[in-house]
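During the reporting period, our protein records have gained a structure token line. A sample record is set out beneath this paragraph:
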Amino acid sequence: MLDIEKISNEKAFLIGVVTGGLSPEVVEEHLDELELLTETAGAETVGRFTQRVNRISPKYFIGKGKAEQIVNQAKMLDVNLIVFDDELSPTQVRNFLRLDESIKVIDRTALILDIFTQHARTREAKTQVELARLEYMLPRLTRMWTHLERQMGGIGTRAGAGETQIEIDRRLVRDRISKLQKEMKGIEKERETQSRRREQKFRISLVGYTNAGKSTLLNVLTGADVYIKDQLFATLDTTVRSLALDRKHKVLISDSVGFIRKLPHSLVASFRSTLKEAVDSDLLLLVVDASSRLLDEQLETVKEVLTSIGTRGKETVVVANKIDLLTPAELRGLKDRFPHAVFISAQNHLRLDALLERMKKSLESSYQTAEVTFSASLGKEIASVYERVEVLEQDYQSDEVHLKIRGNSSVIEQIVAQSEDGEA
């Protein structure tokens, strides 16, 4: 993987811009989150700067005078990294570099991509992250990136007739993107195969803002050994575990990458195969940090990402986690605002029975009973029915088999259609 924006062990200066309907207080809270991101990436925040602007400058985002002031202040603080909470254009980054080449200027997107790169462990996660990073980097290539030839070297890296170094770099990145896209298609096929194997089970996905406690909840419910750390994006890969709600009801429950405000579009696109687990689920448990000052904004962010990946209309239950951090009055206020939510503390195992009951209710409502008839010659198809749903009654005759079945509605519909095709 290319080492493009390694920012660990650096001193960072954070920049927030007050625009439109944003208040200075909200921008400060956004910078608090940006500071957490910066620390997660391994850098130390030594200062921050906020500025109200009426119009975004195409050259520096905030105007040349303020840009020079920021760079000078960064020099005084002995800073080597400036991080904007907003996305910068390639031109804006280059213009900052012209003010001082010794200070690296990145935006929130580059910071998040750096964190994802550090936390990617599996082949799938590494492929997805590298693809997102390269797509982000391609329009930002300058003559700085001469190291690409060394890192990607070999046949095809030498310049063609009249080809400049920047053109070589762009060709190398495009070739790598093409290769990664092919790898992703293979990964997506593997995911589809895994998904088909699990279709007979009721599937629940834990979704939510990063660091809301999804992985902790999965561990508590299933005894899974999922990596947990009190930092943003500790989990990137999807983990699927079996969960017994009681003696009669078993489900599959999954945890995956958390969402965040201004999550890079390239990451959402690259992680589409990972996020498809949520799309294919029967129930979404939208886990939120009940103690967060930005609860409403975080909830809206998660809903926007879920809509973008195709979960509109999916049954969703809000799970307000970390209620142990609330006062009784704060908890009452949240219950008034979210009357249909389930309130828990995964860390302290509080009210998990209410959550299990809510899952069981959803499972029961999804079940359907049907009667189907198969030709006796379709032994393979009949055996498949027994594997996918509960068979309540069976009647074997000389030329056909009558079954009364009960199971997940979507699976029942598939079996009914299969039996009708067999008759045709």
Notes: The CA atoms of residues 150 and 381 lie 55 Å apart. Confidence is low (pLDDT under 50) at residues 143-162. The first helix runs from residue 24 to 41. The chain has four domains: 11-115, 120-195, 199-350, 366-423.
